[in-house]
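@channel sequence for tomorrow's demo:
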Amino acid sequence: MYAIIETGGKQYKVAPGDILKVELLNAEDASIVKLDAVMINDNGNIKAGEAAKGAYVNAEVIGSGRGKKIDIFTYKAKKNIRKRQGHRQPFTKIKITEIVG
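structure tokens (generated this afternoon):
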């Protein structure tokens, strides 16, 4: 059994027991969050669209943090214009506990 969930503008394929990093959620550590399911596959029985309207996935929040630093460097040739900046994307680490659909 697996499901396709949508959170943070992205879609993820998940199964019970999976651990993944998603965009930052406003939730406490060790709390349960409810994520909307776009599609559910239950041993070949597929629910999608209107059939999966009330389907959801429960996930436990393990923790949150910031990802690896990426460097952004822009410049304009022959103009002595250089700009360097970095970015660390915040994330929430979750564990899928059950799929309800």
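heads up for whoever presents: The chain has a mean pLDDT of 96.
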